[in-house]
Task: structure prediction
Amino acid sequence: TYVHGASADEQRNVMAPQLLQWRQVQEAKKQGFKYYDFWGVAPEGAAKEQAWSGITRFKKGFGGQAISYVGAIDLILKQVWYKLYKTLRNIKP
Result:
């Protein structure tokens, strides 16, 4: 399963995430896996400005098909820590 691959604008033309993911797909196939889950794309027909449009283009570039599953949820075990996490996540650098 692939969720987020860190990349930056600096040297984006090198396309390191593409090579990394292609190698992961090859390794998964070598080990006999039938599926490689890129975990999440923008909704069908979403505007190019949609937050996940670039990520979606990257993932779709590998081929395959989009399959929809029930959405993910947060299971909150410690309310205090979850509130801290949500607060820190919303801080813009």
